Amino acid sequence: IKLDFGSPDAGPQSPKIAQHKAEVSANPNDTTALFNLGNAYQDAQNWIGAATTWQKLIDLLPDWEPSYNSQGYALQKLNRNDLAAIAYQNYLDTLARKPQAEQDKAKETAAYVNYNLATIIYQQDKVKAQEYVNKALSLKPGMAEALNLQKILNK
Fold first, then answer.
1. SS3 of residue 12 by DSSP
2. Which of 138, 63, 65, 85 is nearest to 107 (CA)?
């Protein structure tokens, strides 16, 4: 995803961000340092920093689906639902290419990703939102958030 919202330096900072930025500066391809930096940005609610860091991790590890989910969350916090939907869909598409055992381990996260997609699009496309809600409920039956959205969609 092409991200151009400004500098992560404009958002909240923390000692952990500074520490992990120094690690990434020393080795820009250190995926562990990038992971830690992305989490530090999220902990500080620096959503620009988080989204751009997750993109760097995606560029290095395009088959590691958790980055897409984290990026989608950060983008949603930035009110960039258009880009968040792309990131969440990339999560689902990447997970779908994994062995079934890995997909099974990620069921709960996949349920929430489907729910997040439904919340993003339900006002524009109720049919597609219902598909995402149904998928979320198939992965996590009884998921309260999805059941509440389902009630709204069925009105």
1. coil
2. 138
CA-wise closest residue to 65 among 48, 49, 87: 87
Cβ neighbours for 6, distance < 8 A, ≥ 6 positions apart? 48
Cβ atoms of 137 and 108 closer than 8 Å: no
- What 3-state class would DSSP assign to 15? helix
Considering the entire predicted model, what is its pTM?
0.94
Distances (CA, A) of 17 to 37, 44, 71, 72: 6, 8, 17, 20
Q: What is the 8-class DSSP label of residue 3?
A: -
Contact yes or no for 76/50 (Cβ under 8 A): no
For residue range 58-92, list pLDDT tens digits in order: 999 999 999 999 999 999 999 999 999 999 999 99
Which ranges in 7-106 belong to alpha helices (H)?
A: 15-26, 31-43, 47-60, 66-77, 81-96, 100-105
